[in-house]
Amino acid sequence: MLCANYHSDRIRGVSPLWPAEGAYYNDHHVFEEELPVRFVIGLLAVAGAMATSGQAGVTCSDAEYKGAYAFSATGTLLQLPPEGKALLGAFSQSGRFLPDGHGKLFIETNASYNGIVINGDHPATYRVTPDCLIHFDLTLPFPLSVPSKFVGVLGENGKYMSLLLTEPTGTVIKGNHVRQDVTFCGPADFNGGYSIDLRGSTNVPAALAGRFQQIGRIFADGNGGFTGTSTANFNGRPVRDQISGTYQVSSKCYVTLRYKTATTGTESIVIQGAIGGHGEVVQVMILNDGWGVAGSLIRQQE
């Protein structure tokens, strides 16, 4: 690109007092000097070094992936071993990944398998590549109890991670992770307006069973109460609700919300998940049996 503005392979300029070797005047008495080969080689070398530097600028290691990451995941189990047949269908999950910076981690999680909610805390190992991909190996908890592999990719200096389940095959599951930058929490850490972004499937109420999505807004008072509005889509049927309820925040920064709506009847909906960042997001799932729904509550303003 540097040479694109020059005529042929020459540098055009004002004549010095005398021409250098290999230089001459053109018909307009303008001094011209042929572009030295060494100069071209130098430019190419600099460009190559810059490109190499740009590619090598991203580098990660096991040590950089540590602490606590709030996460939620949704997807579908399409194929499982015969003993897991009852679990085929919608899947949702939330909790925390706790990597130690040395290739080991512990996963705190609740998971919904086709509407059956199970606690599935378990250990795992991981390996971080220089280009910030993370390869996880673990055995899925009971009732699956099969070897499993995840692949994740870190973003924004390790603050975010997207994760995909790659083994066993027959699954379509993706998770979103946010590093937890607080270590001890209380009700005041969940405070103000939060947008609602949930998705998945539900088996209840029976008349509305099927695919599910929900958006809306809640306002948490910082003291255990919240109000809000919600627009949900139950298998193609939009429903708008006014919601209000209570919430708790554990010392480990898990938020648990409870509320009732006219649509879901007398049963209280229970949503739980871990705070990410400094409270700007909560990665949640619905804990009620019959639901396979997860997503995020995102703080609207600092």
What would your notes on this structure say?
By secondary structure, the protein is mainly beta. The chain folds into 3 domains: 2-56, no CATH class; 62-179, Beta Barrel (Lipocalin); 187-299, Beta Barrel (Lipocalin). It has one helix spanning 37-56, and strands spanning 10-12, 23-25, 31-34, 69-77, 89-99, 104-113, 116-119, 122-128, 133-139, 147-155, 160-167, 171-179, 191-202, 210-221, 225-234, 237-249, 254-259, 269-276, 281-286, 291-299. The protein has an 8-stranded antiparallel beta barrel with strand order 4-5-6-8-9-10-11-12. A hairpin with a 4-residue loop joins strand 18 and strand 19.
Number of domains: 3
The biggest sheet amounts to: 8 strands, antiparallel, barrel
CATH level-3 fold name of the largest domain: Lipocalin
What fraction, in percent, of the residue positions are helical? under 10%
The H-and-E topology, N to C, reads as: EEEHEEEEEEEEEEEEEEEEE
Mind telling me the CATH superfamily name of the largest domain? Quinohemoprotein amine dehydrogenase alpha subunit, domain 2
Shape: globular
Kindly report the spatial arrangement of strands forming the biggest sheet.
4-5-6-8-9-10-11-12
CATH class of the largest domain: Mainly Beta
Mean pLDDT: 85
Q: Total number of helical segments?
A: 1
Distance between the termini: 45 Å
Runs in which pLDDT lies below 50 for 5 or more consecutive residues are 1-20, 30-35, 43-55
What's the β-strand tally? Answer: 20
Strand content: over 45%
- SS-based class: mainly beta
Give the CATH architecture of the largest domain. Answer: Beta Barrel
